[in-house]
Design a protein that fits this description.
Structural class: alpha+beta
Strand content: 25-35%
Helix content: 10-25%
CATH class: Mainly Beta
């Protein structure tokens, strides 16, 4: 795993083993994850969205604590996966990084609690699977408009974005900050340190 340009965002590149039957890989290794990130990834929920070309899911994030960390890969087709720093006070606040995830390279992304997440399907249909550190809790879940020009995500020019009613009605980043809906960088760092500290002492981390 290697950390991307935003603190708390990581890219995992698996070793794919091929033979005449096909191929096999580990798309998630708990031991490797804990070694690189500094704490285990507790799986509370696993989701499998199937998305048509051009459809955008996100930008979504959750209150911290406990937040909702995600570990995602694309098992069929391809998506443009985008991680947005929505943590007020972060050195990279309002910046984003994008990674193509597809069924060839089989890479995966991890985003820590407090980061925003979105993806667009690039193929006629794309199937993603992702692990979540906490269960879906509607009252703690929030969104930012994925076409907010202040964030300026560079979605593919040859694809018309298709948004859900919820995402189309989501506030801009500036509006969400003004309303006090965004997590703070300080709270997210404190929570991450608590997870790493619990891992170092062998104690269960309270979420």
């Amino acid at each position: 795993m290697r950390e991307l340009a935003i603190e708390g965002a990581w890219l995992y590149t698996p070793r794919i083993h091929h033979d005449r039957r096909g191929s096999v890989l580990e798309w998630f290794s708990g031991r490797e994850f804990a070694r690189d990130v500094g704490h285990p990834f507790p799986v509370a929920q696993a989701n499998c969205p199937v998305t048509r070309r051009g459809a955008v899911r996100g930008i979504h994030y959750a209150d911290v604590p406990p937040g909702q960390a995600k570990y995602l890969t694309c098992v069929s087709g391809a998506v443009l996966d985008v991680i947005v720093d929505v943590r007020v006070g972060s050195p990279t606040y309002a910046r984003w990084v994008a990674v193509r995830l597809d069924d060839r390279a089989r890479q995966a992304v991890y985003l820590a609690e407090g980061l925003g997440h979105a993806f667009m399907a690039l193929t006629e249909e794309a199937t993603a699977v992702y692990l979540c550190s906490t269960p879906y809790t509607p009252e703690r879940e929030h969104g930012i408009h994925p076409l907010d020009p202040a964030i300026g995500i560079e979605w593919p020019e040859d694809v018309t974005p298709l948004l859900s009613e919820r995402d189309a009605a989501a506030p801009s980043l500036a509006e969400a900050e003004r309303l006090g809906r965004l997590p703070t960088y300080a709270a997210c760092r404190s929570y991450a340190e608590r997870l790493r500290g619990a891992h170092a002492t062998g104690e269960p981390a309270a979420r």
